[in-house]
Amino acid sequence: MFVFLLLLAFIGTVEAQRVPGQQKTDSCLCKINSSIWTFPTLQFMEVTRQVQICEDKLNEFEEKLRNTNAELPMMEATLQNISARLKTFGYLHTSGLYSALHLRQLNQELEDIHQSVNETHMQNSNKETHNLLSELNKAKNDVQRMYKDDFFNLETMKKRLRDLNNRAQSCKTIPNDFRSTCHQRIMTRISSPSITKLNSISKSYISGAWGRDAQLSSKKRYWEHCLVSGHKYGNTIRMYNSYEDFMANRNYKDEQIASSYSDKNAVQGSGTILYDNTVFYQCYSTAEICSFNITTKVTKRVKLDGAGIDNKFPFCYYSCRDWTDIDLEADQDAMWVIYATEENHGNIVVSRLDPLALNITHTWKTQLFKRSVTSTFMMCGVLYATRFVNTYQEEVFYAFDTTTGQEINTLSLPFEKVSAGIANLNYNPVDGKLYLYNDAYLLAYDTFF
């Protein structure tokens, strides 16, 4: 007697198996293939491995997602910053490099330069003013041609105008006796430090300025100014009536420039200079120059158009001091302001400052990127720039002559320092020395032509 048994077999998926059998006495005998119930070990191990891989990748993805969520605010802020900076160049996607607005601006700049040169030519006609007028007329014709076709590159024309403007500024700048006092215009050597000492307040004050009154007929007064609030602000200047008192840190007087570090007339940055008993410096948190007369206690202000502030265009990349956007300098002939603007692509701009009227009289635009420079100073109407060599050495590598409008990139005048960071470097025409605020150290050098 045959009996069919319905058994369940698990092969991958559950399915039924019919097995025939034969009854003998009281038993039912049947042959069953038990291999169909063998556990699929290899398949199970593979599935387990895939599950583990999937879990690892899921954990990795979750970690990346957490990191991305943390970085998103910073990425968004960066994107907004980039978008804001690129917004002014949006015209490139619509009207191309040239637009009527930019050409009108070029035309207006040309007209301003032409008027300035023409006035100088009327007052003091010479070969240079005649040549400048001819070149300006040619440039005006070229701009008119740009209205009709894109024959001239806009940046090339702007560079051309910068050079013409520098020559125009130089043309009306040179006093009759200027060359007699600075007949040899380019410096040739800097000595080893002739003075080396710590500032008189604290070694922790790594930013500031110091020197001697830079007015040629002034008394022999030394000064010291330390930034004591976050290496950014200050409101007093320490005065000494003799070199001996300065070296001994005695008999000094702390003159109060402003009532507090956050007063609108407080000092910001280390670009301070003393000229004719008057402190010249960047006013607190603004693109303005302040002058504070120590005798009369009167403060004056003048706006410095376009100047970057609040670490927008500070000096240098290596071992730098912050808050060096605006640098005040003095030499044999004038007061000077050194800064950078967006319009000049972050390159150094030099302006001549009338110290009495406190207004800008002339402006030159260089092609030297301000962040590539550690410090600057003026000597005989020439701007000098230094760069970092190593912790104990600096090098004057660049000069711009405001008298000729020429840039010199071949200088190599090394000088020693005692620490890496430079906060201020200024030249004094009275004694011909360079005064360096080198972290907390005060150093002075002799200069040679």
Automatic annotation (TrEMBL):
GO biological process annotation, one example: signal transduction
Q: What is this protein called?
A: Olfactomedin-4-like
**Database matches in SMART domains:** OLF
Q: Which UniProt keywords apply?
A: Coiled coil, Secreted, Signal
Extract one GO cellular component term from the record: extracellular space
Q: Is Thylakoid among this UniProt entry's keywords?
A: no
Where can this protein be found?
Secreted
Q: Where is the Olfactomedin-like domain?
A: 181-449
Instruction: Provide the leader sequence positions.
Output: 1-16
Where does the protein principally reside? Answer: secreted
Q: Which PANTHER family match?
A: OLFACTOMEDIN-4-LIKE, OLFACTOMEDIN-RELATED
Residue ranges that the Swiss-Prot or TrEMBL entry lists as coiled coil? 44-78, 103-174
The keyword Secreted appears for this protein? yes
